[in-house]
Design a protein that fits this description.
The complex is a heterodimer of chains A (429) and B (133). Chain A has one domain (2-411). Helix content of chain A is 20%, strand content 32%. Chain A is built from eight helices and 25 strands. A six-stranded mixed beta sheet of chain A has the order 17-19-14-20-21-22, sandwiched between helices. A four-stranded mixed beta sheet of chain A has the order 8-9-1-13. In chain A, a hairpin with a 2-residue loop joins strand 3 and strand 4 (26-29). In chain A, helix 7 packs parallel to helix 8 (317-331). The longest helix of chain A has 20 residues, at 147-166. Chain A is globular. Chain B is globular and about 40 Å long. Helices cover 44% and strands 11% of the residues of chain B. Chain B has one domain. Chain B has helices spanning 19-24, 37-49, 84-100, 110-131, and strands spanning 12-16, 29-32, 72-76. In chain B, helix 1 (19-24) links the parallel strand 1 (12-16) and strand 2. In chain B, helix 2 (37-49) runs antiparallel to helix 3. In chain B, 44% of the residues are buried. Classes of the chains: A alpha/beta (429), B mainly alpha (133). At the A-B interface, helix 7 and helix 8 of A face helix 3 and helix 4 of B.
């Protein structure tokens, strides 16, 4: 039996202070100590830590990753195995969460920049990270660093900052304790023989620079689909490799707080029997797609699932992985429900996905990424606004002289998140 | 096997408009077409009709094809009967190109061209690692 206690410490405010600690539900951060820690990386020339809170007149752009501070309190391993901690298997024991706090990394990696978080105004409605107390880490690399090394440096800085802050919650009594447990597959299946057995097939971006994901530090494009305990994911076993498709690239925060997993746990033993999670990748070669989709479908079948929930990450190339996964599972007689988003044009009338199959007849849409929104200027910009015209959801004329911008919601971090971690949805009519 | 095999001859070639790919892997580039991404797509479509198979997805990168300056696609060197799956992927990609290309051509600053080139190159290298180079 794998059992993880997740202790949520509800944080109501974040401030800079002399010592990094949690006191009376407030997180105090020693800014200099945090910056010095991140500057230990010889690839980083400068670090600036700023705070952005809900309601602040602030725009953060370009957002690279969002990470929730957590700390392992009991049990083997530590958070973000393969990066911050050694590679021991995580997911059991007890983990504390600084709930309500998020580390947000910003800074140029490549010139076309996206990932907008507005802390107030209409843009704030589209991102869940307008509601978190954000510790924004702006990383400037040393001169001449390659894009790959730069991405690596920013990724590590975000994880280090989250682990550093999370450690402040080690000795704090959580406000809420959640327990997640899942037994061996045969026991789980035998326990609820009358309920449909459901597996979650979790697709991870793995296309290359800024489109990658790591599992225990391993580049997901180099894995065969495999089984993972959902509680391992809560301990940071899956880490985002930063993003250039902001609306539907899963940040590390999304992985840590996957709503599909929490819902499957919530309904386990009630109307479904939640067997477990299979992770798979979204590579660029068609041979990899065939191999991974066949292998993932086989694993789901071997687990004895009646049904499977499949979530996609990104669009275009991964639409093909999504559809292959769906088709192969349905051909095995396993029912599929897909969660994706749409690129259906500004009027929503065009074809939504770049691939399709009749078996994909149960699809949940997280919204149309091509919807255009006007974002009024904000008093303060953390990061760099100048390149908004060339971001993925922007266009020539996006940036007005007054600092307001007109973009597709694709540019907003998490706007059409394909785990359903947002407020948008599509309706059929 | 998709790799070159014992003869060492590659069983695939690239169609690209990315000068970084041409510069780094000149021996792999079958068709270099300076210009917008649609030129690459149309060439790929024609080659698929001649019996070459798509080995990488034309929409790799999860970026709108009409909004990026560079794209590289891998095709099989061997010619067989028309592969309908390949044809469908490229036709969907062409359709998405026309749906996402802005009415006035984008003028890419030099710095951005280098970065887009690097992103495309990283996808090429991911594919090379998978296919065996």
């Amino acid at each position: 039996m794998v059992r993880l206690e997740l202790g949520r410490i509800l944080i109501k405010d974040v401030q800079f202070g002399e010592k990094t600690e949690v006191r009376d539900g407030r997180l105090f951060i020693n800014k200099e100590e945090l910056e010095e820690l991140l500057l230990e990386d010889p690839n980083i020339a400068a670090v600036a830590v700023e705070l952005a809170k809900p309601g602040d007149d602030v725009r953060i752009i370009p957002v690279k990753d969002v990470i929730e501070p957590r700390v392992k309190v009991e049990g083997p391993g530590g958070v973000f195995p393969g990066f911050i901690s050694k590679v021991d298997t995580v997911g059991s024991g007890r983990t504390h969460v600084l709930a309500g706090v998020a580390v947000v990394t910003t800074g140029k990696i490549v010139g076309f920049q996206e990932g907008i978080i507005d802390m107030t105004g209409p843009g704030a409605e589209y991102t869940p990270f307008s509601q978190t107390l954000n510790v924004v880490v702006k990383v400037t690399p040393v001169e001449g660093l390659s894009q790959h090394k730069h991405e690596h440096a920013v990724r590590l800085a975000g994880l280090k900052a989250a682990a550093y802050l999370g450690a402040a919650g080690r000795a704090v009594e959580p406000d809420r304790l959640e327990v997640y447990e899942l037994g061996p597959f045969p026991e789980t299946a035998a326990r609820y023989p009358e309920l449909p057995k459901v597996v979650y097939l979790y697709m991870l971006q793995s296309q290359g620079l800024l489109h990658d994901t790591y599992v225990y530090g391993v580049d997901a494009k180099k894995i065969l689909p495999t089984i993972i305990s959902p509680t391992e994911i809560m301990d940071g076993a899956i880490v985002s490799g930063n993003c250039v498709s902001a609306c539907d690239k899963n940040t590390t925060y999304h992985h840590q707080n996957n709503p599909v997993i929490s819902q499957l746990f919530a309904r386990h033993g009630k109307d479904i029997c939640f067997l477990g999670v299979v992770i798979t990748n979204e590579n660029v070669t068609l041979a990899d797609k065939e191999r991974s989709s066949s292998y993932a479908a086989k694993l789901v079948k071997m687990l004895g699932a009646d049904g499977v929930i499949i979530t996609e990450e990104g669009f275009g190339n991964p639409d093909t992985d999504l559809i292959m996964n769906c088709r192969k599972l349905e051909e095995m007689g396993i029912k599929t429900v897909l969660i994706t988003d749409e690129y259906a044009g500004r009027d929503g009338a065009s074809q939504s996905l770049a691939d399709a199959v009749p078996a994909a007849d149960a699809v949940v849409s997280a919204g149309n990424a091509n919807e255009v929104i006007e974002l009024p200027p904000r008093g303060k910009v953390i990061g760099d606004l100048a390149t908004v015209e060339v971001i993925a959801g922007g266009f020539a004329g996006s940036l007005n002289p007054d600092g307001s911008i007109r973009v597709e919601i694709q540019a907003i971090t998490g706007a059409t998140n394909e785990l359903g971690f947002s407020k948008l949805r599509g309706e059929g009519f | 096997m998709l790799t070159g095999g014992e003869s060492g001859e590659m069983e695939y070639f690239l169609v690209t408009n990315n000068p970084l790919v041409k510069g780094k892997y000149p021996q792999l580039v079958g068709h270099y077409l300076a210009g917008p991404v649609i030129g690459v797509f149309l060439q790929v479509r024609d080659l698929i009709h001649k019996g070459h198979r798509l080995l990488t997805h034309p929409l790799s990168g999860s970026l709108k094809p009409g909004r990026i300056p560079f794209k590289t696609v891998f095709l099989s060197r061997k010619r067989e009967d028309l592969d309908f799956a390949s044809l469908q992927y490229i036709e969907e990609s062409i359709d998405l190109y026309y749906r996402t290309v802005p009415p006035t051509p984008v003028r890419w600053p030099e710095e951005l061209l280098a970065d887009y080139g690097a992103i495309d190159l990283s996808q090429v290298e991911a594919a090379l690692e998978s296919l065996g180079s």
